[in-house]
Every structure is written in C-alpha cells, then in structure tokens.
Amino acid sequence: IKIITISGDESEQNFNISSTYPWEDKYCDFQGITGINFKNYAVIATPTMFLIDKNGIIEKKITSLDEIK
User: Fold this and answer.
1) Which residues, other chains included, contact 17 with Cβ-Cβ below 8 Å and sequence gap of 6+?
2) How far is CA 40 from CA 7, 20, 32, in A?
3) Residues near 51 by beta carbon (within 8 Å), at least 6 away in sequence
4) CB of 63 within 8 A of CB of 46?
C-alpha cells in the first residue's frame, strides 16, 4: 500500500502541518479546493481517499477508513 497526501491548503503554513504524516509523498498546489487535483478527481469533501490498483485504476473512492475495512 502506498499513501500520498494531496492537500487542499491555500498557504504553505497550513500545508506544513502535513509534514507530521509518516509517509513521504505530500503534494499541494496552494489553490485550495479549486485546484487541478480536486477538479481532476472530483473531490467535493475532505478527506477523500482512493483505492488505486497496481495499474493506476481507481477501484474505489471513499471518505472514511471504515469504508476501506
């Protein structure tokens, strides 16, 4: 399993909070919820998580860890 963060923050100060997460991959375009990543993946709330297979296909779009279990 690989975990990444795509942040909806609009400032670097807020984005720095994600540095406490133990995984390496953290991204932010500082455009908030109007940013390209939110549009491309149709994110309408946070958190939104995706289960993506090894071929890069989105298997499931979820909003809570309970849905993964």
Assistant:
1) none
2) 14, 26, 13
3) 58, 59, 60, 62, 68
4) no
Q: Is the pTM of this model over 0.85?
A: no
Phi and psi angles of residue 13, each rounded to the nearest 5 degrees, phi first = -60, -45
Cα of first residue to Cα of last residue in the chain, in angstroms, is 14
CB distance 48 to 62 below 8 Å:
yes
Which DSSP symbol is given to 42? Answer: T
Residue whose entry in the numeric block shows the structure tokens 């984005």? 15
pLDDT band at 55 (very low <50, low <70, confident <90, very high): very high
